[in-house]
Design brief:
Layout: H1 19-28, E1 30-35, E2 38-43, H2 44-49, H3 55-59, E3 76-78, H4 82-94, E4 98-99, H5 105-114, H6 118-125, E5 130-131, H7 138-146, H8 315-318
Parallel strand pairs: 1-3, 4-5
Antiparallel strand pairs: 1-2
Helix pairs in contact: 4-5, 5-6
Length: about 325
């Protein structure tokens, strides 16, 4: 029988390693945090160096063997709002307060107080903050598109476009890797063959969009609206689709391996030959879906709604 267990890595130190090298290794050791359900990866040095007397620094100091409880994947659990933690973590990295215009500054302030980040609190109270601005507008996009062929790969890699209206535009073959597209209006846009790998699409509106053959591995689509989309042959491996609305979407041959679809609305989706191996489908609404030939091996189906399916799920589809 095939094993589908998670693989964890550990850092080992040899007995003849010098104390200074061991100390340096521990400081720079990568850690994963689960803050209110959102996953963050950083180093102990980042968490402890900026404000060493803060609560979060003390949590991850070298003498703390276990800062908090851990989830099933080994991430340290912090029962706070992950939405605001992004700004907190960026401050710990570079010492500045840069926040998205859609993020409530009062929320960031309250989180800073909770984590004991006095320096961050002072910066916010003194108004020493920076707001991320749109670098491009819809008109800029249209000007670029009319002078380019749809077969040409345009590069908007890493560009900040939060909140921009790109609805109904032909955006085929554009490289949006690492781009910030949170809160964007991409409804009824043609995004076929785009690269959206590791892009931030939280709360984006993609209703009716064409996402055929899109590459979006590790993309963040939490609470995004994807109702009635064409996601045929789309690669969404390890993507975050927690709370997303995908109702009525065509998702034939889509790859959702180890994707997070917790509490997602997937009612009446066509998932013919979809690969959802290892996906988190906890509390996901799959009512009325067509799961013919779908691969659900190793998927978490706890609390998932599987009523009125077009065809019953066969044991061979879910057996590990």
């Amino acid at each position: 029988m095939e094993s589908n267990g998670a693989v964890s890595s550990t850092v080992a130190t040899t007995s003849n390693q010098s104390p200074s090298v061991s100390s340096e290794t521990e400081c720079t050791k990568w850690v994963t945090l689960n803050v209110g359900g959102e996953i963050f990866t950083t180093t102990r040095l980042t968490l402890t160096n900026r404000e060493p007397n803060s609560m979060i620094a003390r949590m991850f100091a070298q003498d703390q063997l276990k800062p908090s409880d851990q989830d099933a994947q080994g991430a340290y659990l912090i029962d706070r709002n992950g939405y605001y933690f992004r700004t907190i973590l960026d401050y710990l990295r570079h010492g500045r307060v840069v926040h998205d215009k859609h993020v409530n500054l009062q929320g960031i302030l309250e989180e800073a107080k909770y984590y004991g980040l006095d320096g961050l609190v002072k910066l916010i109270e003194r108004g020493e903050i920076e707001q991320a601005e749109l670098s491009l507008t819809r008109l800029d996009f249209i000007r670029t598109l009319v002078t380019s062929s749809h077969t040409t790969e345009l590069r908007f890699q890493g560009v900040h476009l939060s909140g921009i209206n790109l609805s109904k535009l032909d955006l085929r073959n554009i490289n949006f890797k690492y781009a910030c597209l949170s809160y964007c209006n991409l409804s009824n846009a043609d995004l076929s063959c785009c690269i959206l790998e590791r892009a931030d699409l939280r709360y984006a509106n993609l209703e009716g969009a064409n996402l055929h053959s899109v590459t979006a591995g590790c993309a963040d689509l939490q609470d995004a609206k994807l109702k009635c989309c064409d996601l045929t042959h789309c690669n969404l491996e390890n993507a975050n689709l927690k709370g997303a609305t995908l109702e009525g979407s065509v998702m034939e041959y889509v790859s959702l391996r180890v994707a997070n679809l917790k509490s997602a609305n997937m009612r009446n989706c066509t998932l013919y030959y979809a690969d959802m191996a290892g996906a988190n489908l906890e509390a996901c609404d799959l009512t009325g879906c067509n799961l013919t030939r779908a691969n659900l091996r190793g998927a978490n189906l706890k609390g998932a709604q599987l009523e009125k399916l077009v065809t019953p799920v066969h044991m061979s589809q879910i057996d590990i």
